[in-house]
């Protein structure tokens, strides 16, 4: 991508308004100094001494972090946190981010805050080593009253924004933000606001979702379309095109080291290869960076090819940031795209 084309897209970002609907969680990084390890007198077990704690928004919050890094003008998180210590940390972390408006985010005593607690062993001149993660989740159905409030917030935000990104992060259906009832509300919103860009992603796959823009990996595409075995690139092209035409919305398929496919309802399909690796990698957060950059680019009027290039470049930047769930800034994207264009 030529620098002037990228800057024409990026200069529109400060005027965009984007909502992120989904499961916001707290990523709490516990930085451990192995030189300070002790043995517990009581248990005889090793004690990992934490010398720094880094809380940041995760899950849908990772998408939001990437939108902030792009300088999107107004960002609305739509979701919930518990009335607990983790919820306080999550709310505080979200509220501190630039251009984030909290009017549609709910703090409730009826749920606990979805938390990924990530112990990291930090040693000089070595990549961070992540130990076993400690997760806190909800295991019961999202209360009807809370679901009703979320529906109201989606309806209110839809009239204000240029785009909506949906991320379903929970493992157990109906226990998070993106319930079937909420998806019905989203479907109604898209019929009312036909110009609204809505991109959906779910770790459990998108079966049962209304017709929206879908973002998924190749395995999820195969499962959704009933394909058997691992899909090759020709099959991905075919299945993605069929799905885009069936839903009358774009379909995006990420392929890790294989790059990314985009299919339009018109039958147009583009494939952007992955950029070369530049060192050690950590793939956490790459998919969310793709979602944020695809959506921002489309809302800014980018072509399919340009949106795919930006999503691909963002993933390349994020995977090279170790020990954190990273983001890709406009400056980082500009530098990488210019360098890629020189090869």
Detailed description of the structure:
The chain is of the alpha/beta class and 343 residues long. It has one domain (3-342): UDP-N-acetylmuramoyl-L-alanine:D-glutamate ligase (3-Layer(aba) Sandwich). Helix content is 36%, strand content 24%. The chain is built from ten helices and 16 strands. It has helices at residues 3-10, 60-70, 85-96, 144-158, 180-192, 218-225, 233-247, 286-299, 304-319, 330-342; strands at 17-22, 24-32, 38-39, 46-47, 50-59, 74-82, 105-108, 115-121, 129-130, 134-136, 163-168, 197-202, 213-217, 251-254, 260-263, 269-272. The strands form three sheets. It has a nine-stranded mixed beta sheet with strand order 7-6-1-11-12-13-14-15-16, sandwiched between helices. Strands 2, 5, 8, 9 and 10 form a five-stranded mixed beta sheet that branches. It has a two-stranded antiparallel sheet with strand order 3-4. The chain is globular, with a radius of gyration of 20 Å. The mean pLDDT is 95.
Write the layout of secondary structure elements.
Layout: H1 3-10, E1 17-22, E2 24-32, E3 38-39, E4 46-47, E5 50-59, H2 60-70, E6 74-82, H3 85-96, E7 105-108, E8 115-121, E9 129-130, E10 134-136, H4 144-158, E11 163-168, H5 180-192, E12 197-202, E13 213-217, H6 218-225, H7 233-247, E14 251-254, E15 260-263, E16 269-272, H8 286-299, H9 304-319, H10 330-342
Parallel strand pairs: 1-6, 1-11, 2-8, 6-7, 11-12, 12-13, 13-14
Antiparallel strand pairs: 2-5, 3-4, 8-9, 8-10, 14-15, 15-16
Helix pairs in contact: 1-10, 2-8, 4-5, 6-7, 8-9, 9-10
């Amino acid at each position: 991508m030529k620098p002037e084309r990228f800057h024409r897209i990026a200069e529109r970002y400060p005027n965009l308004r984007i909502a992120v609907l989904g499961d916001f969680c707290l990523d709490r990084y516990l930085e451990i100094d192995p030189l300070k390890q002790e043995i517990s007198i009581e248990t005889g077990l090793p004690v990992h001494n934490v010398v720094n704690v880094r809380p940041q928004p995760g899950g849908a919050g990772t998408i939001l972090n990437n939108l902030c890094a792009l300088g999107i003008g107004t960002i609305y998180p739509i979701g919930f946190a518990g009335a607990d210590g983790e919820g306080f940390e999550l709310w505080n972390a979200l509220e501190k981010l630039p251009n984030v408006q909290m009017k549609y985010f709910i703090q409730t005593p009826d749920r606990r805050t979805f938390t990924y607690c990530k112990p990291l062993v930090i040693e000089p001149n070595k990549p961070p080593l992540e130990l076993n993660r400690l997760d806190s989740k909800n295991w019961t159905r999202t209360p009807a009253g809370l679901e009703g409030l979320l529906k109201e917030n989606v309806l209110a935000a839809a009239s204000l924004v240029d785009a909506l990104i949906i991320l379903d992060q929970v493992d157990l259906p109906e226990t998070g933000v993106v319930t079937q009832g909420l998806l019905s509300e989203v479907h109604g919103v898209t019929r009312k606001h036909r110009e609204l860009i809505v991109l959906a992603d779910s770790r459990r796959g998108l079966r049962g979702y209304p017709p929206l823009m879908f973002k998924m990996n190749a395995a999820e595409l195969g499962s959704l379309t009933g394909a058997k075995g691992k899909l090759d690139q020709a099959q991905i092209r075919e299945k993605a095109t069929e799905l885009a035409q069936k839903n009358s919305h774009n379909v995006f398929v990420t392929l890790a080291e294989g790059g990314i496919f985009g299919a339009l309802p018109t039958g147009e399909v583009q494939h952007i290869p992955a950029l070369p690796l530049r060192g050690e990698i950590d793939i956490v957060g790459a998919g969310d960076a793709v979602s944020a950059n695809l959506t921002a680019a489309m809302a800014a009027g980018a072509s399919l090819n340009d949106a795919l290039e930006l999503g691909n470049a963002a993933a390349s930047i994020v995977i090279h940031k170790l020990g954190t769930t990273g983001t890709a800034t406009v400056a980082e994207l500009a530098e990488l795209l210019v360098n890629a264009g020189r090869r």
